[in-house]
């Protein structure tokens, strides 16, 4: 069949541009930077202690050039040499962290946007362990240069080809291990970004199912997609209700990763996959924010992307995923305010606002996950504007019924520098969701919108330990910022990988 000129994805692997970029770049730990062949060498410079040798200016001269070694700052020292030297601010030695190393690498690659062969020298990793340091530097370098250029005639910047890391005093095997992990986690994050950055008509629910199948084949997990007729037979009234106004079919995509040995546990991941959120009959007013609603599948993207890392990281847990995919459109067949939908499992929901659609698709996914008998569920969803209002664009809202599970998600978020903050599931607010004619309604009151959405979801997880990430704020960034690049951030992908890879049942 001939592809419409207005549809890019899915084709072959090259349709996910970051896969090609990831295959093309080599990151290595070296004993000596190959100065001749490199276009740029970066050196981390702290605001205290001695300057690394090889930096041709002293502190006073660097200061006159405006460089004070603050984190995130860089200064390109162009000389007669063919290789650019870049000093990278890294703050005080005692403050050095994994996140600081990641950000320094990202700042470096952005300082030399045209360079494809680069080397980075780090004279101390402070108290960070060698593997984590190498992993963070790799992630920073690869994610800092991410661009979604698939639909441009010419890419804005060349992709990286070679990244050499010279880490003074660091065990070579540990560094290589960290680099290998960083390549996998950065690739996964970039896949999530590609999916969320792809325009909505290029990536429909059925396209996402096709992409998942391709990724499963390459990265070693099983993919099963359920179409509209099958969803009717399964009683997934939430996904079907939201889909009713759409010309595109919905898809439930189920992912399964099975480890080589006896599983250490079984984790369920559920992702919101609203391919485009118009608001439905409760139509969103047209404002620039709605350009972003192609990213309303960011949760599903991060779950799918996390699966691409599990085999390559040797994950020991069984991991299952449920992606609830449809767009939310107004039309003559759309679901209406006052309609009652029946979730998988039989609970009825009165629709008081068709723009609160995320919770309606998620309820079916959460029920399916509990039915599968997983040891715990983590869901991730671009669920509420209230999460963005409460915590802004860098921190996600975290809720849950199991404090040990919430603690694990928080610890992973701290480690990956994908910040999350726990908010209370305040039971007092539950009555805001009461309905006169159904078991529950999909709309809470005017305030605490992220919490009432979380309370709604909690009704569908039974006794299974559950944590919920509301990523409405963190799904995208207005500007390049540390490991984030402008546009879709792929937020949550690395948290999910971190929690899933060694998952054991929570107490
Ligand atoms: N997808 C939106 C939430 C969102 C808002 C994500 C901004 C990213 C950025 C969600 O489906 C939505 O429309 N939520 C409503 C819920 C309300 C109607 C109860 C909201 O937050 O306004
Ligand atoms: Mn909505
Ligand atoms: Zn939405």
TrEMBL record:
The active site is at residues 284, 359. Its EC number is 3.4.11.1, 3.4.11.10. Binds 2 manganese ions per subunit. This is Probable cytosol aminopeptidase. Belongs to the peptidase M17 family. It comes from the Bacteria. The gene is pepA. Coiled coil: none annotated. Residues 353-360 form the Cytosol aminopeptidase domain. GO terms for molecular function: aminopeptidase activity. Presumably involved in the processing and regular turnover of intracellular proteins. Catalyzes the removal of unsubstituted N-terminal amino acids from various peptides. It catalyses: Release of an N-terminal amino acid, Xaa-|-Yaa-, in which Xaa is preferably Leu, but may be other amino acids including Pro although not Arg or Lys, and Yaa may be Pro. Amino acid amides and methyl esters are also readily hydrolyzed, but rates on arylamides are exceedingly low; Release of an N-terminal amino acid, preferentially leucine, but not glutamic or aspartic acids. Its cofactor is Mn(2+). Mn(2+) 1 binds at residues 277, 355, 357. Mn(2+) 2 binds at residues 272, 277, 296, 357. HAMAP family: Cytosol_peptidase_M17. It is found in: Cytoplasm. Its main location: cytoplasm. Keywords: Aminopeptidase, Cytoplasm, Hydrolase, Manganese, Metal-binding, Protease. It comes from Agromyces allii. CDD domains: Peptidase_M17.
């Amino acid at each position: 069949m001939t592809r419409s000129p207005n549809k890019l994805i899915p084709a072959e692997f090259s349709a996910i541009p970051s896969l090609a970029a990831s295959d093309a770049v080599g990151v290595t730990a070296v004993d000596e930077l190959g100065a001749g062949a490199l276009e740029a060498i970066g050196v981390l410079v702290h605001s205290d202690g001695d300057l690394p040798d090889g930096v041709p200016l002293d502190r006073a001269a660097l200061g006159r050039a405006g460089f004070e070694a603050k984190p995130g700052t860089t200064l390109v020292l162009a000389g007669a040499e063919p290789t650019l030297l870049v000093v990278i601010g890294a703050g005080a030695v005692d403050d050095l962290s994994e996140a600081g190393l990641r950000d320094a690498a990202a700042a470096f690659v952005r300082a030399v946007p045209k360079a494809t062969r680069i080397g980075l020298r780090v004279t101390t990793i402070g108290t960070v362990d060698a593997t984590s340091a190498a992993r963070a530097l790799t992630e920073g370098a690869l994610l800092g240069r991410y661009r979604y250029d698939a639909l441009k005639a010419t890419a804005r910047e060349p992709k990286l080809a070679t990244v050499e890391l010279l880490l003074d005093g660091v065990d070579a095997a540990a560094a290589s291990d960290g680099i290998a992990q960083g390549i996998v986690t950065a690739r996964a994050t970039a896949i999530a970004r590609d999916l969320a950055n792809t325009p909505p008509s290029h990536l429909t629910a059925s396209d996402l199912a096709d992409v998942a199948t391709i990724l499963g084949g390459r990265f070693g997990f099983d993919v099963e997609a359920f179409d509209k007729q099958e969803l009717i037979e399964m009683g997934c009234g939430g996904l079907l209700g939201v889909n009713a106004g759409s010309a595109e079919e919905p898809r439930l995509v189920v992912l399964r990763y099975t480890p080589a040995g006896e599983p250490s546990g079984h984790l369920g991941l559920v992702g919101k996959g609203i391919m485009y959120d118009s608001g439905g009959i409760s139509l969103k007013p047209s404002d620039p924010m709605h350009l972003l609603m192609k990213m309303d599948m960011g949760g599903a993207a991060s779950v799918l992307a996390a699966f691409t890392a599990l085999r390559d990281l040797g994950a020991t847990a069984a991991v299952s995923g449920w992606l609830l995919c449809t767009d939310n459109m107004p039309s003559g067949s759309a679901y209406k305010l006052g309609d009652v939908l029946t979730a998988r499992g039989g609970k009825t929901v009165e629709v008081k606002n068709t723009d609160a659609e995320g919770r309606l698709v998620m309820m079916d996914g959460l029920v399916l996950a509990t039915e599968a008998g997983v040891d715990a569920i983590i869901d991730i969803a671009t669920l509420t504007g209230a999460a963005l209002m409460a915590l802004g664009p860098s921190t996600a809202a975290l809720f849950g019924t199991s404090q040990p599970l919430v603690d694990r998600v928080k610890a992973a978020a701290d480690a990956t520098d994908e910040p999350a903050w726990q908010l209370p599931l305040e039971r007092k607010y539950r009555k805001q969701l009461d309905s006169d004619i159904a078991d529950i309604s999909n709309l809470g009151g005017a305030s605490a919108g992220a919490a009432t959405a979380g309370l709604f979801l909690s009704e569908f997880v039974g006794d299974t330990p559950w944590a919920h990430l509301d990523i409405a704020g963190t799904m995208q960034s207005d500007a390049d910022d540390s490991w984030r690049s402008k546009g879709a951030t792929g937020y949550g992908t690395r948290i999910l990988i971190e929690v899933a890879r060694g998952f054991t049942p929570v107490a």
